[in-house]
Amino acid sequence: MTYSKSHMMINNILKINKLIYHSITKIYGKNVKIRKYTIDYDSILNYDVNYILNSINKHEVYVTILKNTIRSLKLTIGDFSLSYLTLITIVLNNIFTLMNLGYNPKEILKKLEIFMKTSKKIINNMSFMLPRLDKSKYVLQRLSISLLTEFSNYVNISKISISLVESLITMFDNKFKYFSLDNIKIITRINDKQFCCKLIFGICIEKKGFRLQNNSLNEKNRVVLMKGFIPSNNIYSGFSSIPPLQLDQMIIGYSRDQLVSRIVKKVKILQVSVVFHQNNISERLEKALTINSVNVFKWMSHKEIEVLSILSGGRIVNEVANLNYNKLGFIGTIRILNNKGDIPYLIIKSSSAIKFVTIVIESSEYKHIIEIKHIMSILITILSLIIKSKKIIRTKTNIVEWFIFFILLKKEKKRLGKKSLNGVFFISALGKYINLKYGLEQGYGSSYKSILLFYWKMKSLVYDPINSYTNDSSLIEGNIEPSCIKQTIFSLIYYTITDLFSIYIY
After folding, report:
1. Which family does it belong to (predicted)?
2. Counting CB atoms within 10 angstroms of each CB, which of 55, 56, 399, 407 has the fewest?
3. Alpha carbons within 13 A on the beta-carbon side of 497
4. 3-class SS at 364?
5. Rounded CA gap, 254 and 238, in Å?
6. Residues 6+ apart with CB under 8 A from 464
7. Can you give the three-state secondary structure of 412-439, one letter per residue?
8. Distance CA 97, CA 228 (A)
9. How confident is the model over 474-501, as pLDDT tens digits?
10. Is the pTM of this model over 0.90?
11. 315-347: buried (b, 16+ CB within 10 Å) or exposed (e) per residue?
């Protein structure tokens, strides 16, 4: 970065001074005191923006307001405070990222306000734990800084992600006590058009009253796309597929009526229930297929997707809609379509009773999908066993919600080549799932041990079953000292959040 760019950036940042100050007074009141602080910038040499920070330091007004913004968060936990230097650096880095992405000062301010509010929320949700943490305080401090750093990267706010999380939480409610891989469908996808086919096909099948099986659809229900886009079996799980009809090969040597008859005959032989076409199907053929109880759909517009979802008992919700989950009732099937356009869609099918859920996993590489599916399968199995054992005392915060939080975390942003989950979702998830009151308030009883056992088993099964934090024999026997529990569980929380796994879900 040249000096001229640095100078321009400084001037742009100075333009937000009054807006930031207005934000501070609006959120925290006008009685906020502004103090002068000094920063040792030598301690943040690892940041690319270090020389810019030194330049900005000359503008005392900006530094004062920025530091006051951090101070106003009151990020003090127990006997120690989070590093103001670290937090200031995070905020500055966030500002530079937003500016490089083309956000104007007002947009940056809005995101900073969200950052301030949610950061404060994090600390409030974790501060009650500290009297019992003892030597594990450093774990919570590292966790807090890690989470705030992660949030600084989440600059794209997506309400649809929040809707998905709320839907999953609603579905995995206490009333949905018993579930396993038999009623949780894990569908992976690489190509959007392939996924659309599966999406609509699943809706059509459900409309007919068929239920998705564990490994395949009922053999009597198959789908044909008249021109390609049939997913291969090694990419998708939970569906059967057949080779596409080769219309070009059929046309040679046949009249129009013969062609229609031949296609209908082949559809019957293949036991096809759904046919998609791309403007290359005649009215005569469409009518012939319909008469033979075959659903025929043109490939594919958003309006048709909406119609199909409504016909199947579902509803379309775009990202700006306010979804009332109490009125919606139990969530039966959740299916997501991201058309990578201006308005992504969330298709939710409401049912009177929960039977199964579809979780969509996307990755650019097949090997990553396999890895994620393996982890998901393990966690679902563990969670099912824990719930069935009834060892968890159900309160406002459910161990199931912890599970949803962990499966939705993003760990390997660069490896998967996808954008991180948005900050609003991340922080709301943290605020809800980091709440261990139900364990701490119950003391060191069986429920508390069960939580600890859950995390230990999860870590052991996902990775090699090595004892990184506790004595595994004492865990198995159930003889756990209170000090061991306190230190171990928060170590495992930090370990899981920062080092375990995540999936990308639309």
Report:
1. Belongs to the TCP-1 chaperonin family.
2. 55
3. 25
4. coil
5. 37
6. none
7. CHHHHCCCCCCHHHHHHHHHHHCCCHHH
8. 41
9. 333 333 343 443 333 333 333 333 322 2
10. no
11. bbbebeeebebeeeebbbbbbbbbeeeeebbbb
Residue 110: CB atoms within 10 A of its CB come to 14
Would you call the peptide bond into 300 cis, given omega within 30 degrees of 0 as the criterion?
yes
Length of the chain: 506
Q: How far apart, in whole angstroms, are the C-alpha atoms of residue 394 and residue 453?
A: 16
List of residues 6+ apart from 171 with CB closer than 8 A:
330, 331, 334, 354, 357
C-alpha 132: how far from chain center: 31
Tell me the C-alpha distance between 492 and 58, whole Å. Answer: 43
**Cα separation of 15 and 13, whole Å?**
5
C-alpha 445/C-alpha 427 separation (Å) is 29
Q: Measured at the alpha carbon of residue 415, what is the angle toward residues 413 and 419, in degrees to the nearest 5?
A: 30
Q: Beta partners for 185? A: 358
Amino acid identity of 381?
T
CA within 13 Å, CB half, 284: 9
- For 109-167, what is each residue's pLDDT tens digit? 666 666 555 555 544 444 433 333 333 444 444 444 444 443 333 322 223 233 333 33
Phi first, then psi: give them for residue 188, nearest 5 degrees: -105, 155
Q: Tell how far CA 127 is from the center of its chain.
A: 25
Tokens 């990419």 found at:
235
Counting Cβ atoms within 10 Å, is residue 103 exposed (0-12), middle (13-18) or buried (19+)? middle
Closest CA to 10 of 48, 63, 68: 63
Alpha helices per DSSP H over 130-186: 137-153, 159-171
Label residue 276 by pLDDT band (50, 70, 90): low
- φ/ψ of 205, rounded to 5, equals -65, -45
